[in-house]
Every structure is written in C-alpha cells, then in structure tokens.
Amino acid sequence: MTIQQLRYIVTLEKERHFARAAEKCLVTQPGLTIQLKKLEEEIGIKIFDRSKIPLEPTPLGLEIVEKAKKILREVDTVRDFIIEQKNILTGKVRLGVVSTLSPYLIPLCLREFQKTLPDIQFIISEDSTVGLMNTLETGELDVALMATPTGNSNLREFPIFNEPFMAYLPIHHQKATQSTYELDNHDRDNLLILEGEFCYNSQLLDICSLDTSNAHLNFSYEINSIETLKNMVRQGFGFAIVPWLSTWVETTQTKASSIPFAIPQPAREISLVTSDTFSKKLLVEKMSQAIWESLPDALKSMTTYRKIRWDDSPYFSKKLAK
C-alpha cells in the first residue's frame, strides 16, 4: 500500500469516473486502474463496484476511503511541517570558509548577511579544503564556502561567482608594468605555494603546467597564508599566483604588482557547499544572494574565464594519499 494509491482511491471516490480521476491525478487511466487493482489484491477487499454507473465504492470500500482521507491529511501536515522547517531563517548556522578566501570575502559580506538574515547567528571558522569537506560530511559544519567542484558525491554545490587568479610580481620584475601577464619559464621555477592547501596548489600547478614547486630555494619555509606568500614576493623571494580578492584594495606602495592573466583568465569557482542531506535551500539561496550583492562591481562584471579544477589533479590525489 502506497500514499499514491491512497490518493488515487480518494480522488476516484470523489469523481466516480476513471477518466476524470486519472486526469486529476495526472496519470493515465490504465495506470490508475492497475494501481487500484494492485491495492485491492493486496488488502483482499474490493473497494469499488465497477458494475455501477456512476462508479460507487463498496460499503467496506467507503470506510477505507474515509480512513485514507485521514491518513492523507496527516501526510499533508507532515509535508507542510517539513516545508516550514526548511524555510525557517532563525537559529545558528555553522559556516566554514576556505582559508584562501575567508580574510577577503567575509569582511565584505558580513553586513549583508546581517541585513538579509537578521535572525541567523553565524558561527564562522576557517579551514583547509580537505578539512571543510570532512566536517561537512560529519555534520560539524552546516555550510562551507570554498572552491569547487569538489568531486565528492556526498556534497552538494551551489556556485556563486568565479574569482580570477592574478600574477603577483615583485615591483622590479620585468613584467610588473604590463597590462596582462603571460607565464614564462623563469617564473615557473620561482612559484611559491601554500603548505597544506592542496586544492589551491593543484590549481596553481595546473595554471603553470607544473607538478612540483619551491625546489630551487635554498631554504624551507612552510607558507600557510596568502598574506605571508605575498610578503615573500614583496621581498623578492619568488613569484606567486593569488586570488583576485586578495589584491583589489592594494595600493601602489606595496612593493609588488598584481597583473591579470591574458584572456581567458584562469579562475576558481566559488560555491556554497552542503552535505547531500542538508535541507534548508532557502537559507543557501539567501546566503548566495548576500555574497553576490557584496562583491565588488569589477569582479561581478568579469565573464571570460578558464575555470581551473583541482578535484581531479594528480597532485591533490597524491597529497591526500600520504
């Protein structure tokens, strides 16, 4: 016995006609007839007297239809309750943000979050991509803001915007005054990457067509933030590729120059990500809207990109396997 079969017999009792009932139920008449027959065979009771015109329920059939109506009312109540819960925009939301994005985006969108979702208390934390994926799956986080696609079938992704990568060069670099940047072999050899942020590194190595980096340096320094990486560039220790949001408010006094790549610019897709069991779609929609409204106009107007993946990178897979 299924809920759909109960809906069929309630509609059939109301219409007293197979064709009209089938039309109301958005099913073919043979399909409705087959489902009625299956139900009658399962319970061992004839629900409708097909010899009567118009169609009539049998005495026991009428009682079954009345009970089905009560069941369907309860089912509708449960459905309405679930919809209401999905649309509740109150309480606490645990938001994780990838560390290469958080310092630049969260200060921009926090006020818009407060304006759009005034009754939500956001508990915001930073983590690596791998850490965010793990805590989403374990339920320690509700939502994560990160680069996608993740390649994880247990997660759902809601893309918001594309963020270009910028070449970040020391001010004395021969290409520091150019309008666009094209990678050369010297800079490939001097690329600085982030320790532990394997998805970000995978994207950079894809842009540079490399499978390793930092091998030329005569020191070992585990860089864990974009700002530290940028400071290394300012002091002349290499070349970096950084997210657009980390450079857009910089002045010309930083001892470094950020230059866009030639079109199509390499970019990372930024999305809100949830577990596949997360049900509050309205919350995700409101958060996405707030983030989009907070973005600088210059970023929102950019459209020509070459999207850089990281989930299928051999570098990323190798690092996770260690």
TrEMBL record:
<dbReference type="InterPro" id="IPR036390">
    <property type="entry name" value="WH_DNA-bd_sf"/>
</dbReference>
<comment type="similarity">
    <text>Belongs to the LysR transcriptional regulatory family.</text>
</comment>
<keyword id="KW-0804">Transcription</keyword>
<keyword id="KW-0238">DNA-binding</keyword>
<dbReference type="InterPro" id="IPR000847">
    <property type="entry name" value="LysR_HTH_N"/>
</dbReference>
<dbReference type="InterPro" id="IPR005119">
    <property type="entry name" value="LysR_subst-bd"/>
</dbReference>
<dbReference type="GO" id="GO:0003677">
    <property type="term" value="F:DNA binding"/>
</dbReference>
<dbReference type="GO" id="GO:0032993">
    <property type="term" value="C:protein-DNA complex"/>
</dbReference>
<dbReference type="Pfam" id="PF03466">
    <property type="entry name" value="LysR_substrate"/>
</dbReference>
<feature type="domain" description="HTH lysR-type">
    <location>
        <begin position="1"/>
        <end position="58"/>
    </location>
</feature>
<dbReference type="InterPro" id="IPR036388">
    <property type="entry name" value="WH-like_DNA-bd_sf"/>
</dbReference>
<keyword id="KW-0010">Activator</keyword>
<protein>
    <submittedName>
        <fullName>LysR family transcriptional regulator</fullName>
    </submittedName>
</protein>
<dbReference type="Pfam" id="PF00126">
    <property type="entry name" value="HTH_1"/>
</dbReference>
<keyword id="KW-0805">Transcription regulation</keyword>
<dbReference type="GO" id="GO:0003700">
    <property type="term" value="F:DNA-binding transcription factor activity"/>
</dbReference>
